[in-house]
Amino acid sequence: MSDRGAGDGRRQPIRLLLADDHGVVRAGLRALLEAQPDLRVVAEAPDGPTAVELTRQHVPTVVVADLSMPGGGLETIREITSLGLPTRVLVLTVHAEERYLLPVLEAGGSGYVRKSSAHTDLLDAIRTVARGEVFLDPAATKTLLRGYLGRVHTGDEIDLGEVLSERERAVVRLTAEGHTAQQAADILSLSPKTVETYRHRAMQKLGLTNRAELVRYALRAGLLGAEDA
Predict the structure, then answer these.
(1) What is the DSSP string of 60-72?
(2) Among 31-45, 67-81, 99-113, which range has the highest average pLDDT?
């Protein structure tokens, strides 16, 4: 198909699929997103099964999906991520409770934005997820960590002491906190390329394939101390 970007030498836009059962919401999102020169909406879906099928057809860079749409938001995330495509799923939802956050990550989602903060966070979230990073807005991150820290010492904690080096552990922790490679580099006084190298090495050691998995693993491993929440 010809909708994957013109071959004029410029960077191709981030291709988006909007999945929400409210047409008015989709129309508002399309207007917001297509006002950005680096974003392009290639398809819309009113429910989960349609979103999965359109993902197969268009292979968007990012699917922006409502968590409560017909067909099940979490099931839709699982099905899309199981397709083996480079598509990332960013959840846009009204829910802010902690019980919704971890399931999104465990289903394979790469980000979580509340609709109440979409006007300030959505554009950044889409670009972050498109780069292969994980995006959680600050409030969601704090809620997630607070809830998870209460569970990591129940016998399910993973000992990474002999698996990862100190630098690798630090990079994994910062990644789980939502820092970009540049931000982690600034904190650790390293170059972004070196941070990426440590992260890649850690993922290889842990048998992980993407950064969303790395975030989930770091949470299970208890790498985030109480001071981080």
Answers:
(1) -SEEEE-TTSTT-
(2) 31-45
Task: Give, for 148, the enclosing helix (H) or strand (E).
Answer: helix 138-149
Q: What is the pTM of this model?
A: 0.68
Domains of the chain: residue spans and CATH: 14-137 (3.40.50.2300), 157-228 (1.10.10.10)
Positions of E strands within the chain: 14-19, 39-45, 62-65, 88-93, 111-114, 135-136
Three-state DSSP state, 161: coil
Closest CA to 116 of 133, 93, 140, 141: 93
Q: Please name the residues in contact with 68: beta carbons below 8 A apart, sequence gap of 6 or more.
A: 21, 93, 94, 95
Angle, CA of 179, 181 and 183, to the nearest 5°: 55
Q: How confident is the model at residue 140 (pLDDT cuts 50, 70, 90)?
A: low
Strand order in the sheet with 39-45: 39-45, 14-19, 62-65, 88-93, 111-114, 135-136
